[in-house]
Amino acid sequence: MRVSEYALGTARFGAPGGDDDARAVFEAFVEAGGTAFATSNVYQDGRAEALLGDLMGRDRDDYVVVTKYSGENPNARTPRPGTTGNGRKTMMRSLEASLRRLNTDYVDVFMPHFPDQITPAEEIMAGFEDLVRSGKIRYGGFSNFPAWRIAGAAARADLLGMPRPICIETEYSLAERSADRELLPMAEAYGLGVLLYSPLAGGLLTGKYRRGETGRLSAAGRAVEKDSQQTAVIDEVLAIADETGQTAAGVALEWLRYRAALASTALIPILGPRIVEHLSEYLRPVDLDIRHYQRLDKASALRMGAPHDDVSGALLNGYDGDRSLIDPPAVPPI
């Protein structure tokens, strides 16, 4: 499936008083060549999907729509177990509601938003198969799931001749590279595309919090820069932005484009601008050289932990034993 280099996130679509801004952002994104949209049944209590459907209109087939299920209105006072989770009942019910809001008869990718720690992968994959065969979805995927569960689902689909998942969605940025441990290598091994949300880490990488501005992180009431490494990353991003005459957001997103160019599968950042001016800033070309990328790599490098560090150490120290112990197979074992 062909998608644009970026996807547009719609979490703010349908927010009170924001329809005009959302419409302007949608139109500017499409004008720039954007075709992919990431949404969810819980964004603005379903209003995000409804507005997206209205904006796509009769051009629906020109676009790729990724939507998610699992939860209901996050502001609901009383949880309703029968309407949440990853199981077949919630999957089918949520998809039908999403299709009505989106004013379409299919979505391109459908995925559980979060694992519920109860529903087995077999049930989710069987549901995907039914929906693919019915024509209501084109592909299934997984959002915020651990790598071992996704790998098991992909392997099971291959064994049983079921439609395999096409992509995953996870947080990834210079400030949050945990996916480097398992998720991204797994996605490359199985040929899964990766949607990357929070590519600017909730505005952290724009430097706005250091300018005294507010945003999602400050509204949450927690430390904005949670550790010394994040502080070092922001220092480096701002330094490179100053040296090159670019914006901090442009530098952070350009590093993601560089990271995507090195990957053997598609890495698609999800942009979430509130206004057109932000989108224009994010899409503006940025010219960095290899030294800038290396500085950003170094500042944001993740301590991989066991067994990754052990394998790297063995390679660096000239391990000369059975290389099958440290060389991964070309195709993951089932």
From TrEMBL:
GO terms for molecular function: oxidoreductase activity. InterPro entries: AKR, AKR_Detox_Biosynth, NAD(P)_OxRdtase_dom_sf, NADP_OxRdtase_dom. Coiled coil: none annotated. Residues 70-89 are annotated as: Disordered. Residues 70-87 have a biased composition (Polar residues). Residues 8-299 form the NADP-dependent oxidoreductase domain. Keywords: Oxidoreductase. One of its GO terms (cellular component) is cytosol. It holds the Pfam family Aldo_ket_red. This is Norsolorinic acid reductase. It comes from Mycolicibacterium smegmatis (strain MKD8).
